[in-house]
Amino acid sequence: MNSLTIFCFAVSAVFVVMACVRADRVRAWRESLNPSAPEVPDSAFVLARILFLGMAAVGLYSGFQGLAVSDGAAWNGDELTSAVSGATEALDGDVAYAGPHEGVPADFGGDYAMKVADEVTSHGGGDAPGPGSVDATLTGPRAPKEAHYTITADGTPAAFCLHVKVNRKKDGDYEAPGIAGGSYPQYAYAFDVTSRKGDC
Fold first, then answer.
1. What is the rounded end-to-end Cα distance, in angstroms, of the chain?
2. How confident is the model at residue 95, as a pLDDT?
3. 172 neighbors 95 (Cβ within 8 angstroms)
4. Which residue from 39, 48, 96, 159 lies 20 to 30 Å from 85 (Cα-Cα)?
């Protein structure tokens, strides 16, 4: 919660307290300061209460708007937990192809790291920040068919370890049509993805 939001709520509270002050108390206070001052009519107190409550409502609205903006600018632990869980389910079981020669169809240090970050972001929900707010850092083991990513996000100290393992899926192979009626093989690979809380 930023200082402007706190200020809006504090000012609103002051206006509500002012609106609740009884008319006879105000009259007694005025009389003690200036006994010859003309008496304030009841209608003036009614208008003052309406004004104070109206300004309090504006302050509360501004405060809640500030909270909404603040929440949309940073992740919290629950949002990141849910997003990583959703991304893990979405990535697990994904099938990719390599061809015409066998080879893992994933650049673990580049494109796949970006895919992981984008997938987490897309599962953040309406209040979570957008693209660029999640990092998927490759932390090992840098094996040809295996990788670990540490997932972090702006606004929260929470971190998650996402483990990716690629397995050959021979029953998914197929022949893709080529030029001049020929064909070339496409080799299938399945992605086994799990995650847990904490650094890798």
1. 31
2. 95
3. yes
4. 96
